[in-house]
Amino acid sequence: MDAHSRGRADEIDPADQWVLNPQTGHYELRLDRSAEQSPQAAPSHPRPRTTRSATPTPGQRTRSGQGPAEYGGRDRATETAPPVPGQRRRRAAEPDERPGSAGRRKRRPEKKSRKKKVLMWTGGTMAFVLVGGAAGAYALYEHFNNNINTIDVAGGSTGGFKKDAAFNILLIGTDKRTGEGNGGYGDKNSPGHADTTILFHVAKDRTNATAMSIPRDLVIDIPECETKLPGGKVKTIPGQTATRFNVSLGQSDRDPGCTMRTVKELTGLTVDHFMMADFNAVKEMTTAVGGVKVCLAKPVDDPKSHLKLPKGESTIQGEQALAFVRTRHSFGNESDLDRIKVQQQFLSSMIRQMKSDDTLTSPTKLYDLADAATKALTVDTGIGSITKLKSLAGELAQIDPKNITFTTLPVIDNPAEPRPITVVPDPTEAPRLFSMMQSDTSLTEVKKKEQDAKNAQAQAQAKLLQGARSTAHEVRVDVYNGSGMTGAAQKTIDWLQNEHGVTRSSNKSNAPEKAARTTLTYAPNQADQARKLADLMGLPASALKPGTQDAGEREPMTLVLGADFKGAGVPLTGPAKAPAGAQTADKQVCAK
Fold first, then answer.
1. Whole-structure pTM over 0.90, yes or no?
2. pLDDT of residue 459
């Protein structure tokens, strides 16, 4: 026992009892009942002190519970709080010690940083992700932890995420009618669909992220999947061909795990975790941050969604925010694709608001945001705790909004419909985007990477023998499949012949062995043909393998497709440009 604690072993230092009151945004002194001095330890000349009785006297306030939502009372003398593990027990300040009294210890001024030390929720990077970590009261931890809803998806991830690897989170907005006041939205008797879906890809080095929206009216194949029914029974749900993407959730008892597998089948990207939100998520989270700024290129008065906003900038929250992201008749050509653009603009603005000083310096807003987010989200068990969400948020907080790019899966009208109302993946542009995400290429740096690749290719080609550039129909090439991808050689032949007129190309089936990289081997007198084929296929300089002896007049070059081959027409050097309409989260765009 130190000098300051002598005779007061059971007292708790008030400096350890400061707790955030989320309703006021202030820190208040909470003295525990155990802090009262026992009769055995009482001094021979007891000093008057504040007492707490089990029954409050008139005018006193008491706390009935330990949860953070009940930290509302302001009468510090009458409130109790559960002890926090690790508190130091020290001499408490005596009420009768006044300025000038003997033995009085000077009160240390409270540091401005105390608020951050007791509770701090740090910056977030996306609208549906918890934006920070709690470093404080055990009661707060338990409260937020108990808010979280989880689903144990069959075959889903069970452990956080790797800090030294890229990862993918599927953000799902369901149109299920859950939550107070949502009876008029969505499908009345439906278990919900994948109404709004975004695949959020986070780069390995955490410098950038790509948020790719998947249209709900996209027609694809949904693979067979397993789902866990109430009670733990696992049900196998047959796959469906040529059906809308949004039925990958809810219909036929499909859970988010089925949507995760559908996205993997579509993109080739493994989905590590999911976060699902209903209508309440938009209403509650926008209210928690004090509203989200949006910009309109024209005034809107939509009787169907009840959205009414003037031209220019407005701050919206609650029901109005939900109307903004759900309206289909106020912007563009009133299609789901145009609604996706508006949703992306809204999410970008929400990210900026969550990262703003106005939010990060307000304990009240941070508490409200954390409370709303944990209540509104349903996640997989792999990230189903405050500890794991805090760790995830810490990774996401590293990404600057200017390097978060929103884009939409490239699509074309469904050719199977006489009057298309659905869409299908663009056979050329969609694989290019998937390839970029698979290779962890930032959309914000595509132009630079493309130019670097072109420069390297130009330098290599400059070393080739000079001569007139061949036209496509003069190119002769034998194609071997060493990629391990079934049918890759024939698909490449079809693409070369039908799209570019390379009619003198032949499918030589499988290569003698699998190849790690794609290579094009050519003779010195075939340099012009090699340059032409490299341009068409987007081959990097490292893929070009010149020989030493000239080839015969009709002798073809040899193209071996390797494991880096992603599909016919997908350049190995990455996409030529960012997908049309891509926008970064740091810029405000006015909805049109």
1. no
2. 57
